[in-house]
Amino acid sequence: MPSTSKPEKKWTPQEDEILRAAVAQFGTKNSWQKISERLPGRSNKSCRKRWIHSLDPQLRKGRWTAAEDAKLKEAIKEHGLQWWKVARQIEGRTDDQCAKRWREKLDPSISRRPWSALEDQTLMDAWRIHGKRWNVISTMLPGRPAVHCRNRYQSLTRVSRRSTNSAASADSSTPVLLASSHGRDSEEDVDRKPSKVSSQYHSMPFVLTIGSTS
């Protein structure tokens, strides 16, 4: 059987303070082994990752600007998908942030089309088999990144719940008709703007019954 790596235990506030103090004393250049010695149970790689991705005061979090997006595109033209090189050109952004931004928002291979009824059916069929393993599900939907699949699923299930609640007198096992959204799905738009169901959708063949994945 393939070995499964044990997930790293969550960092505590006390560990974070020790890490900050050690970085202040030793700096971050070729010092991670010394720093890790202050934190029993944490490797030099773990300490470096925690600092770079969470504690570095120069780290930028939150919404990307248009200027950052432009820099990211230029950096990818120069370095390809070598994220550690790309991140050097985007001040305050990590390699993981750069990769996530590209894969979920800027990659030209991302589909900008409205979701079709066939894509919705494929999504729900894949969800019944794989659960919420969005990275796996996205491979079945070319042009739809994992986060878009997750957001689309959440949008569809919200519509289904509202339809079910409005038809409370109906049998609970009756399938609920769902619509394909005619708006653009993104990690921001889907959560803020749930899809609306109109009368034109009631002739569509796509159905979903909310239930477990078993």
TrEMBL record:
Name this protein carries in UniProt: Homeodomain-like protein
Biological process (GO), any one: snRNA transcription by RNA polymerase II
GO cellular component: snRNA-activating protein complex
UniProt keyword DNA-binding, yes or no: yes
Record bears the keyword Repeat: no
Keywords: DNA-binding, Nucleus, Transcription, Transcription regulation
Organism: Gloeophyllum trabeum (strain ATCC 11539 / FP-39264 / Madison 617) (Brown rot fungus)
Superkingdom to which the source organism belongs: Eukaryota
Biased segments, Basic and acidic residues type: 182-194
CDD domains noted in UniProt: SANT (cd00167)
One Pfam family recorded for the sequence: Myb_DNA-binding
InterPro entries given in the database record: Homeodomain-like_sf, Myb-like_DNA-bd, Myb_dom, SANT/Myb
Biased composition (Low complexity): 162-174
Residue stretches making up the HTH myb-type domain: 1-51, 56-110, 112-161
